[in-house]
Write a structure and sequence with these properties.
By secondary structure, this protein is mainly alpha-helical. The chain folds into two domains: about 35 residues, no CATH class; about 30 residues, no CATH class. The chain has five helices and no strands. The longest helix has 16 residues.
């Protein structure tokens, strides 16, 4: 996004993070909200699975492990 690069380079009027969110990112997200993909999960649900004594349901944590792995987060 060119606007972000300009903000990051200090060539725009606003130089605060709040300005970035309110003036650049919020309008972009509002305009494209229907086409943005997102994932939601509640880590409290995973905590219940991770701390119970039922080893059979531990497999449910594999997907979360993959999402939070360095390879996924850092796109290695």
């Amino acid at each position: 996004m060119k606007d972000y690069k300009d903000w990051n380079d200090g060539t725009l009027v606003g130089d605060k993070t709040e300005w970035l969110y309110n003036q650049l990112l919020k309008p972009f997200i509002d305009k494209h909200a229907d086409s943005l993909n997102a994932a939601y999960f509640n880590l409290k649900d995973a905590l219940v699975i991770a701390t119970n004594n039922d080893k059979a349901d531990d497999e449910k944590l594999v997907d979360l492990y993959k999402i939070f792995s360095g390879e996924h987060l850092l796109k290695k």
